[in-house]
Amino acid sequence: MTFLLAVIIGVLYAAGTYLILRRSMVKVIFGLIFLGHAANLMIFTVGRLTKGAPAFVAEGASGLTGAFADPLPQALILTAIVIGFGVQAFTIVLFKRTYQTLGTEDLDEMRRTDQLPGGKS
């Protein structure tokens, strides 16, 4: 299971990096989404995958014994999801406003800011 997740994480990182380097704003947004999901899966995988073993200490016991799920990576992932959503929402609004101002979604065309479309300066 860990090997499969490692392959999926690698594919998501590769796809995210590839999409961020494209010229279209929509592809950049999807690249950010893929990178966010890859980071979350990596944190989840590093935090040891244990099925059906919550991190509860039994009454009268002095500590945890055996395999147990670590709750810290799960809390980090929840925080990362919220932060990732905020970054994605900000990026979408920023690109929308940029498209309204410049009239193009091509990132190479956006570099020519000397003169705006329609003869506006």
UniProtKB/TrEMBL annotation:
<dbReference type="InterPro" id="IPR050601">
    <property type="entry name" value="CPA3_antiporter_subunitC"/>
</dbReference>
<feature type="transmembrane region" description="Helical">
    <location>
        <begin position="75"/>
        <end position="95"/>
    </location>
</feature>
<keyword id="KW-0812">Transmembrane</keyword>
<protein>
    <submittedName>
        <fullName>Na+/H+ antiporter subunit C</fullName>
    </submittedName>
</protein>
<comment type="similarity">
    <text>Belongs to the CPA3 antiporters (TC 2.A.63) subunit C family.</text>
</comment>
<keyword id="KW-1133">Transmembrane helix</keyword>
<feature type="transmembrane region" description="Helical">
    <location>
        <begin position="24"/>
        <end position="46"/>
    </location>
</feature>
<keyword id="KW-1003">Cell membrane</keyword>
<dbReference type="Pfam" id="PF00420">
    <property type="entry name" value="Oxidored_q2"/>
</dbReference>
<keyword id="KW-0472">Membrane</keyword>
<dbReference type="InterPro" id="IPR039428">
    <property type="entry name" value="NUOK/Mnh_C1-like"/>
</dbReference>
